């Protein structure tokens, strides 16, 4: 029996390891293809790319492991059936459950380890991976310029009609200068073509434009808001080539603060998800209580003065005027309450969405070990 168990384990472990790494490679390529636009041309060093690939591998393991177990099970028992070895096992009086006992134990151990991985490693890997992807995305922003969309770079807005992805050449360039807060959009530049790159020697962004025109309304560089007469004075400069530099905060690659991503559901373990759900439900109950208080009629004072019998005309007019004032004030209070109610309802919807997201992520923690165990049987 021991030889049979060892034989089945050897027949199972070899395709398991092979299919696991093949699945891992295929899924990793899918991840890289998804984020290829953020990686190409960023000038990242090998340690940064290696770290990103490491986090990406940790992310795709929950998808590669169940697939590898399923394929290994099919390959193992397919080969046993093709070579009539299952028939020989049954003929020897060994049931299929007894023969599969070591595989079931192995898969149970893998499932337990997968549960620990899903609860402890995956939140950390998600936090590291997504924060690094965002850090790469905001690194060297000139590579993020899209066609026919205004891109804001510090005090400038840039729009291009066409961008050559291979050469980086820009066509139909339009640049607005917002550096003067009192007079934004008074200086603009239009060029037929140009290019943008980081000049590392001066730690600034270099913009090179060809065959363009600069329109300048704020000729004297006034810091106050220009009057209509001053706006009539403008200057037009035509140029064949123009080079401008824009200061950027940091040209070196640096990671963003990871604390901004720590509150997302995919970055939490089971304990944190459970505490988050309790917190959201408590906040939701408090919001319901606030709504009940807002719609209570005792918070709205509608005390109108009633007209008495045989009252003088002047007194009647005075009371009517006071009643109109009370009605107007009451209407204003009701409108304010309606706006507050709408905000509270939006808060409830957001909290409900967060609760659903946390519940889904909580169930996903148990999906990996359960899938691994089911696919092996």
> Into which percent range does the helicity of residues fall?
55-70%
Radius of gyration from the alpha-carbon trace, in angstroms: 34 Å
Q: Separation of termini?
A: 20 Å
β-strand number: 6
The amount of beta strand, in percent, is 15-25%
Q: How many separate helices? A: 8
Q: What's the average pLDDT?
A: 79
H/E element string?
HHHHHEEEEEHEHH
Main beta sheet, described? Answer: 6 strands, antiparallel
General shape: flat
Low-confidence stretches: none
Provide the spatial order of strands within the biggest beta sheet: 1-2-3-4-5-6
- Which class do the helix and strand fractions yield? alpha+beta
Description:
There is one protein chain. The protein is of the alpha+beta class. Helix 3 crosses helix 8, helix 5 (96-138) crosses helix 8 (313-376) and helix 7 runs antiparallel to helix 8 (313-376). It has eight helices and six strands; from the N terminus they run αααααβββββαβαα. The chain has helices spanning 2-34, 36-39, 46-82, 85-91, 96-138, 228-231, 270-294, 313-376, and strands at 151-153, 156-163, 170-177, 187-199, 204-216, 235-247. It is 58% helix and 15% strand. Strands 1-2-3-4-5-6 form a six-stranded antiparallel sheet, with no helix packed on it.
